[in-house]
Specification:
The chain is about 50% helix and about 10% strand. Helix 4 packs parallel to helix 5 and helix 7 crosses helix 11. It has 11 helices and 8 strands. The termini are far apart. The chain is of the alpha/beta class. The site of NADP nicotinamide-adenine-dinucleotide phosphate has 29 residues, from loops.
Length: about 325
Amino acid sequence: MSILLSVLAGVLAVYILLYYTVFKGARFKSSVSLKGKTAIVTGSNTGIGKPTALDLAKRGARVILACRNKQKAEAAVYDIRKESGNSQVLFMPLDLASLKSVRDFAETFLKSEPRLDLLINNAGVIASGKTDDGFGMAFGVNHLGHFLLTLLLLDRLKQAEHSRVVNVSALLHRLGSVDFNLLNTHKDLVTGQSSWYAFRAYCHSKLCNVLFTRELANRLEGTSVTCYCLHPGVIATEIGRNMGLVQKLVYPIMSKLFFLDPEGGAQTTLYCALQEGLEPLSGRYFSSCALQNVSADGRDDALARKLWEVSERLCGLA
Ligand SMILES: NC(=O)c1ccc[n+]([C@@H]2O[C@H](COP(=O)([O-])OP(=O)(O)OC[C@H]3O[C@@H](n4cnc5c(N)ncnc54)[C@H](OP(=O)(O)O)[C@@H]3O)[C@@H](O)[C@H]2O)c1
């Protein structure tokens, strides 16, 4: 009996230690108002994006939900309007797996919206398969679609007095790398389609988010626009929807025990978007509402510049 109690106490101690050192995130506290400001949040019909959009709406912003599924997005618009009391919440179709859709979104936005203060590049997938343009899904959606979107909206961002781009990356960027030869031959950062390759491709794409933020900050120096990237924490969302069977069985248990809810997952995004005085840290990476270091590759300026140039070419911008 006493052995059993000791084991239980040990397990509980490990759980508490893990929860408070690894999983529990910080909360962003600020009363800043966004009245008169406009924000875009990609992938905001569910997961971390939805409470991010809700928080911005509660602060009075005009919020554009940039999503690929009309039905899900309109349901989210309904929920967010109802909970925030803000009727300035709108859906605009955006499928990041199609460069044409990205261009159409930007054209519609630029024609109909006179200002842009916050661009939150939140959408993300862990999936195999190809985008409409033949790129690997994770590379195409998580990096290239957001890269093109940001560049097409940059002039509108520059017109605002102070504006920000926030790229939602992940701690898993640390396992990522960028192989430009593979990009040339396969339009992808991996060679296979199994769930292992999908996971690897996700890590690579999240490193791309870090490198894109770094180079974007360099290119934006001296303008009114700053940019940031972040790890949101480990969050119970639909991100694992394409996982294999074993992970699908383990995920709900892990998520109940350890993972933050989506609102908790939105905190560092909101910090990067709204924290006052963050401008000198443009280009940097955050987690738990605090500055963090990135992997060695994530600090490589030459790699960041090369990724930018290759991405421009792949999007047909250069
Ligand atoms: N959850 C975590 O533990 C965790 C950890 C680290 C980083 N992140 C990052 O957090 C961000 C949000 O992920 P999440 O956890 O909230 O996942 P999620 O619940 O799966 O939400 C992802 C969002 O992205 C959208 N999306 C996917 N493909 C798209 C496309 N082609 N075009 C437009 N939108 C698309 C999804 O739309 P549909 O609903 O239509 O599919 C959904 O709205 C991602 O960048 C992810 O990498 C998450």
